Every structure is written in structure tokens, then in C-alpha cells.
Write the C-alpha cells for this entry.
Amino acid sequence: MATLRKLVSDVRAQHKLLSTDGIITDRVIASEIRNTSILLIKRETNLRKLWATDTLFKTLPCLPMQEVSISECCDFVDECTVSRSKEKLPRMSEGNYQYLIQGVWSINAMGGKGKKFKEITINRYSNLLKLPVIKKEEYYWIVNDYLYCSNSSLQAIRMAAFFEEDVSNNVRYPDCDCGTNYSLDDICKNPLDEQFGLPGYLSKQVLDLTSQKLLSTYFKIKTDMTSDGVDGQAPNTKPTN
């Protein structure tokens, strides 16, 4: 799996115009690669593809949780409590059916995956609470960018999802006792040097579409500016007698 820096270099290599132009920075190209990748990946996941791959989903190995009242995330009035992530989640992709979440698990004593939770909406879960049955399953849901779990005693969870933006260090490398060790190199790594979640069979299509978009956008703007005399050059005029 290539890094984002390698993909940026591949886009520049396709056209000499992109490799020599100072306006089209690495940040601009990286942003366009990310936007194009998200578009194509959503298309594939809507077709029920890629859900079992490890190249697409990024894992948050330890997401600290805290106990809160269930009334915080819905209109259900009860003394029931649930657990909620202490930090808001990075922006996740949404498909036709759900968030692109591969799984949410409890964390066992060794810091690995424990029990997997079932996804549910808060409306469905609040309706379950009204039923006179014993609820053996444990669920999770998303409200206002926070992750909630029906198990109120959780201290932390492990989560794998497809995020549309870089995960901040306070979310990715929390100060917790989850049995996960982080190195200084991990924390200080430039996002361009991290492995980019793009399946190999989509790489060429992403690079081609990115290159076409940059050429049609930036070089069209330059052509229009020059033809309108907005490039700072004075129009040719003849002196009057």
C-alpha cells in the first residue's frame, strides 16, 4: 500500500505541467487524491465490496469512554446510563446503508479485541428499552459525532472505520491503559508519509481522475486570466498623435 506522498509524486509524474507548476502544491494534490478516493470507495462499498479489506479501514486501538445518561443522546426519559466516547470521532464516510464502520469491539485484558458490538440507531435502541425483555446483546450508535455503547461500564473500545480526514493525535494516541504502546515516530509522522487507504485496483483510476481534475481546473483558470488581461500585462496600445 502506497503512502500519500508516493501518490502525489505519481500524479506529478504523469504530466510535466503538474511537476513544474508552483501553484499546484503537494497539499492541493493530496486533497484532490483524497476526495477522488472517497468518491470511488463509496461507490465500491455501496456495492458491498471492500468490507473485509485491511487496506481501507483505519483502526483506533483505544478510544476512551465515559458513563453518561442516555438522555444525552435521545429523548428517552429513564435512569439508564450508557457509555460515550470522551472525544468526538473524526469525520467518517457514509454509504447508502450506514457509516463505513468495519467494527467496534471491547478491549480485553491484553489490549486486543474483545466482544464485538452490534450497530443500531438510537431510536431503535430506545424502543428496545421499552420492551419487557432481557437485553443480552450490546450495541453501539453514533450521535453528534460521538460514539455511544449500551454497556455503561466500558472504559475504552477499539474501532475500525473509513475516515475522510486525518485522525488527530489525541484521538489516535490517547493517554490510556489499553495495553497499546506508541512510539515517538508514530506520533510525529507526517500524514503524507503514512500508508494511504486505497485498494490497489483503484489506484490508476484515482491518479488519472486526479490529474484530469487538476489540469482542467488550474490551467483553465490561467488561460482565462491571460485572455482577459488580468495577468498584470498591459494591453498593446498605439500612442495617440
Q: What stands out?
A: Helices lie at 4-14, 16-20, 26-46, 122-129, 169-172, 184-188, 200-227. Residues 8 and 29 are 6 Å apart (CA to CA).
